Amino acid sequence: MPLKLATILAHPDDETFGTGGTLIRYARQGIEVHSLCLTEGE
Description:
Blueprint: E1 4-9, H1 14-17, H2 20-28, E2 32-37
């Protein structure tokens, strides 16, 4: 079964500044990466 990674974030830029490098690393390894943002940036 292929691996999948989901992140749940509070703000739209959190994946860029907080976890961007980690998400890219896993995506390059072939892991399916998804991010869920729970606010509109307010």
